[in-house]
Amino acid sequence: MTRKTLLSVGFILALGILPPIFYWTGNAFWLDLATRLVILAIAATSLNLILGYGGMVSFGHAAYMGLGAYAVGIPAHHWLYGGLEAWGLATTSGLVQIPLAVAVTAIFALLTGAICLRTRGVYFIMITMAFAQMVYYLIVSIEEYGGDDGLVIDTRSELPGLDLDNPLQLFGLAWVSLVAAILIVRMVINSRFGMVIQGAKGNDERMRTLGFNTYVYRLVAYVISGAMAGYAGALLGNFTTFISPEMMDWSRSGELMFMVILGGVATTLGPVVGATVFIVLEEVLSDLTLYWHLPFGLLLIAVVLFGRGGLIGLLNGRDQ
Amino acid sequence: MSALLKIDGLNKSFGGIKATDDLSLEVAPGEIHAIIGPNGAGKTTLISQLSGMAKPDTGRILFKGRDITGQPAHKRAGLGITRSFQITSLVMELSVLDNIALSLQAREGHSFRFLKPARKVTHLREAGRALLARVGLEGKADMPTKALSHGEHRRMEVAIALGAGAELMLLDEPMAGLGFEESRDMVALLTGIKGQHTILLIEHDMDAVFALADRISVLVYGHIIATGTPEEIRANAAVQHAYLGEE
Fold first, then answer.
1. Between chains, do B111 and A206 touch, taking CB under 8 Å as contact?
2. Beta B17-27 vs A242-243: how paired, if at all?
3. Is residue B9 less than 8 Å (CB to CB) from chain A?
4. What CATH number should be reported for the domain whose range is B5-92+166-244?
5. What is the DSSP string of A218-244?
6. Contact A189/A181 with Cβ under 8 angstroms?
């Protein structure tokens, strides 16, 4: 237990300390990679809350990242080209954009979750994916925001005391956000609310006969998870400064699922380890060969077959 | 005698099969009311309708004089009805104590509490341990639920029903799959809580039924053919014919 905690803390610290060192020693590229990794790890951590602990296999999580990114991009666009001033949405202020990202994704999660959570199993997977594709095509159809050509974010979110144009500061914000996301998910999972969510995953019928309206509990978890992914999306928009509907494609949602499963579902650090291995392997393999998807796919099959608890499960070694 | 539970003309069909056929029944407060009947008589279907997991086609269910026929399962649990399952129904991924603590947690209103770790809520954990001691599982509190034996799972089901503070416990074959000794322990356990909770007991084990029940109803093809004390049921010719077999 203590050894595991020590390893976890060490891993997170290394994730925060090593990339700036790379940067200072002239390898700015690795800081870039790490920033993307950390942002995706936040989204994977949020997905783990519902997929891992709640048993809700959402295949539409990338849509939340996309919505979060557009909540940064659209106000920045109007700030530059006019429009929406009356709504106060022509702004580059992060203090508007980021809460907007969280609010929009929370509302989207509430509305779609209320429908999706009436279904189970394969139907749930399909309907979450369908809603995500709806958002995808909605954005594609809006020409003002570039349609499927995407949208350039000319000015990053302005936050007091932070300069997101500075790659080190952007990375720092992402890393601190990741730590916060991990702690929030941990807190939620261990709370009474979290016990109900986990109980409903294991035995929904039992929880209902005990008096828990599991539908409402699931919906609340779904909203928390969606809002966290929206926040991660706002960071991603600031990182790439170019956003397009492609980032909400179902294959992107698949990648997030891959990270969670690869690292280990329903473990604190699984999604972070999964995201790290995913991003680093993608980088290394795509350097080696154009056909990097094949070894990548084989790896996923191997992890699912042999390490049922994901990479974290393999590290733990013990069967619990 | 005012009934705690009153079932009035309940009907439920699956396709062409009448699982519940004009079933009426009253359960008095504090009694152990057993329902016996041959396989396929509709016993579990009845429990499912009472707990809200299945909807009757027609008829009414009154709990404490209140019509609960249309209430969903989680609402009925809030009113004081808890069921156990014929096939063990626990959260296998959580520890034994977690399962019991959840049943206690269910009693304290909503669980939209996000800050404090549930496993550090002392009064839930202590009350949970006390309940486990009551069903003889105090040593297993921190084990994963899936590591326990079938007999221990059955006792956990009783502890959960107790934890949920059920005024009316619907016990669906608590002795199912138990060995001789385990059955005896279960009878002792249920005897111990007799009078404190009203129990509607479905059971195949006739020795257990006649040892525990205050009254017995006999269910055949979804219809109650007789209700009475164990002595009356033993002496009832129709029951003899339909169920207990000629001797």
1. no
2. unpaired
3. no
4. 3.40.50.300
5. HHHHHHHHHHHHHHHHHHHHHHHSEE-
6. no
Instruction: Indicate if the pLDDT at residue A234 is higher than 90.
Output: yes
Nearest Cα residue to A197 out of A224, A179, A177, A178: A224
The DSSP code for B197 is B
Inspect the interface and report whether the beta carbons of B164 and A206 lie closer than 8 Å: no
What pLDDT, in 10s, does the model give residues B22-31? 999 999 999 9
Provide residues of A within 8 Å CB-CB of chain B: 187-188, 190-196, 198-199, 201-203, 205-214, 217, 220, 320
Q: Do A192 and B107 touch (CB under 8 A)?
A: no
* Disruptive mutation site among A53, A192, A212, A222 for chain B (greatest number of B CBs within 10 Å): A192
The pLDDT-based confidence of A319 (bands split at 50, 70, 90) is very low
Please say whether the beta carbons of A252 and A282 come within 8 A. no
Q: How far apart are CA B7 and CA B197, in angstroms?
A: 19
> Looking at the partner chain, which of A195, A211, A214 has a beta carbon nearest the beta carbon of B164?
A211
pLDDT of residue A33: 95
DSSP string, A148-211: GG-EE--SPPBBTTB-TTSHHHHHHHHHHHHHHHHHHHHHHHHBHHHHHHHHHHH-HHHHHHHT
pLDDT digits (tens, 9 = 90+) for A156-215: 999 999 999 999 999 999 999 999 999 999 999 999 999 999 999 999 989 998 989 999
A33 class by beta-carbon count within 10 Å (0-12 exposed, 13-18 middle, 19+ buried): middle
Q: Is the CB of A220 less than 8 angstroms away from the CB of B103? A: no
Distances (CA, A) of B218 to A263, B162, B210, B233, B236: 55, 26, 13, 8, 10
Distance between CA atoms of residues A279 and A277, nearest Å: 6
B192 touches chain A (CB under 8 A): no
What was the pLDDT predicted at A16? 95
**A115-142 pLDDT, tens per residue?**
999 998 899 999 999 999 999 999 999 9
For chain B, the straight-line distance linking the first and the last C-alpha, in angstroms and rounded, comes to: 35
Predicted structure pTM score: 0.90
Check pLDDT > 90 for residue B69. yes
Q: Which of residues 152-171 of B touch A (CB under 8 A)?
A: 160, 164
Q: What DSSP string describes B84-148?
A: --SS----TTSBHHHHHHHHHHHHSS-----SSBGGG-HHHHHHHHHHHHHTT-GGGTTSBGGGS
Contact between A202 and B93 using a beta-carbon 8 Å cutoff: yes
Closest CA to B11 of B1, B3, B23: B23
Residue B5 neighbours by CB distance under 10 Å? 22
Given a contact cutoff of 8 angstroms between Cβ atoms, the answer to whether A57 and A257 are in contact is yes
Measured in angstroms, the CA of A117 and the nearest CA of chain B are apart by 17
Q: How many CB pairs under 8 A join A and B?
A: 101
